[in-house]
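Help wanted!
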Amino acid sequence: MNDKIQVISKYALQEQEMQALNDAAMAAKQVLESGSGAGNDFLGWLHLPSSITGQDMEAMEKSAAILRGHCEYVICIGIGGSYLGAKAVIDALSDHFAAYKTGNGPKVLFAGSNIGEDYLYDLMDLVRGHKFGIIVISKSGTTTEPAIAFRLFKEMLEKQEGKEFAKHNIIAITDARRGALRGLATQEGYATYVIPDNVGGRFSVLTPVGLLPIAVAGFDIRALVAGAVEMEKDGDEQVLGYAIARNALYQQGKKIEILANFTPRLHFLAEWWKQLYGESEGKGHKGIFPASVDFTTDLHSMGQMIQDGERTIFETVLSVGDQQHEVIIPTDEEDLDGLNYIAGKNVDYVNKMAELGTRLAHVDGGVPNLLITIPAVTERFIGQLIYFFEKACGVSGYMLGVNPFDQPGVEAYKKNMFALLEKPGYEEASKAIREKLNN
Ligand code: PA5
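Answered by r_m:
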């Protein structure tokens, strides 16, 4: 088995096309590593994996053990960068049907990543009367979606178990000093973990934001971080390969990157990737639009568009070497379904042929294809993948000429929502938006 992720661009670009952007990529990497570029106060993630200590791990493992010991459910409350990393890693490593199986430790569920009234109702209905704990995560400590969810579940937990139990089963992960959540945690006496000032939400999965929920779900955070350290120390070849390829394709008019997987457990990894690249690069009316598909499922829905729609896309296939389990297709004497030609093969062999066939078909259809391979879906290789995507994102953003570490655009909807909700302080904006709606 390989021991590292690989990036292969042979079905996307000629060697000379890659070479043409080499200097630009090296310059962008230098700007990133020297901290001399835009957004350089948000580079805390760059050397984060190697700076996590055994003590840090131990503290999180202890907190996780407490929640695992006391709770049937742990509700992780957060949105965006305070949600997607943990969700991606937990989904990638979990049994697909863990929710329906009685297992070891609590079920980790998520809230605060939407404002769905029925979603919240159903989740409250599920945990009512059961032992549950809460991990509430918000860097700013003021985000509306998680604040609503936390108010609801905090009240429920306190009514159900009393303030004392609640206090010991709520952990807040937030800024060291600022924000409503910090104030609330101090007043109520919750255990807290700090999100470093210099790590933005979408780069925070290897801080307690991701690591604590992942540990609560029962996964090995030391192996995850060790994988990230491997890429921090020795991943530049892969980082540059990916950053160069996607910028070269963008310059050729490929404005949309589709991240495709053939591994159902990676669905949320792609959701995390979309936030990482979308929020980092979509600025100044520039940027590759990050999209994702789950194959072979979406070959039966989006396949036509990819094969034959407008030629503005390229595809990056995230390919997994080994599955965790083997399922062999049985022989059937009558062969009424005509499947005996693949009898005796394991299911993943068929999936791999679908993957190769799809890549070749899409290349023939004018969709350049990048391939990222990971040896298996384990803590170590997911850790590698996380750091690889993060660093490639920094390099790629600088190559594109944007600040990859801010997100001014995400405030626009909030301003309108607060104006419509008549939040104190938004009186002028409320008036203006009402007038706009009436005209
Ligand atoms: O990447 C980002 O900065 C955002 O997606 C945030 O993570 C998201 O809005 C949640 O913010 P907060 O952690 O402050 O509640």
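OP: Thanks! One thing I noticed: The CA atoms of residues 339 and 426 lie 65 Å apart.
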